[in-house]
Amino acid sequence: MEIIVADKAGFCFGVTRAINTAFDAVAAGKVYCLGPLIHNPQEVERLRQAGVETVEDFSSLKAGETLIIRSHGVPPSIFEKAREQGLKIMDLTCPFVGKAQRHAEALHDEGYQVIVVGEKKHPEVQSIIGHAGANAVVIEAAQEVPGMKLGSRLGVVAQTTQSYGNFSEIVLKLLRISKELKVHNTICNSTTERQNAARLLASEVDVMVVVGGRNSANTTRLASICRQEGKPTHHIEVADEIKREWFLDAGKVGVTAGASTPDWVVKEVLNKLKSAAISR
Fold first, then answer.
1. Which residues are catalytic?
2. Arch. (CATH architecture) of 2-10+189-278
3. Is the model's pLDDT at 257 over the cut of 90?
4. Whole-prediction pTM
């Protein structure tokens, strides 16, 4: 059994930056992160053991303590509350997310109703919405557009981990109902490259293994893309989830990983796959 890893897999620039900065910060003492720093339970646990505590509410923190703003970003109101509380803020918002936030704010200031293409409950989308004005709307799929009551001037941005296919399909639907449409493609280049690499690899192998947190939007999307190629696809978080029966008739197995999946998790998966190949 041949095991092939996608050209683009694992940590992206923004996640690497956030992880390294968090580990550096904790060297000076315990720090707090508003929500999990990244959507990977294994790496979040490693951070916790080092002294990075995840909190969902920072109201009990004392003035002078350090609060990390995770890579997904937050609405401006969160920064205001943290400053009023006297907290030290370490802003680890991904630069690409920050770009989407700035575009959303600018569109609102220019008089557009802002449309965010993304997952309504995702923290990144919520952070962008916080910059987009009171009448901003989140659209997850093109099928939602026909029944929506929207303004005549629409400005569009995307969750950075969106697929280009879904984004463009929604934009085309909006083009048909708006008098004026301004679009900023804020999909991260790394996301597009990762999705293209996964799609290409899935077309060439018999089975795909996608590694990453089940709460990770970009990892879940990679698994969906691989399934669209018609190949059996297994989304796992850790190597222990691998089952030998998945590969009984497989000559080639492809492996990819989400942008928040650490290298050490990917290596464990590859080692388990090699063991499964030898024992067949």
1. 124
2. 3-Layer(aba) Sandwich (3.40)
3. yes
4. 0.85
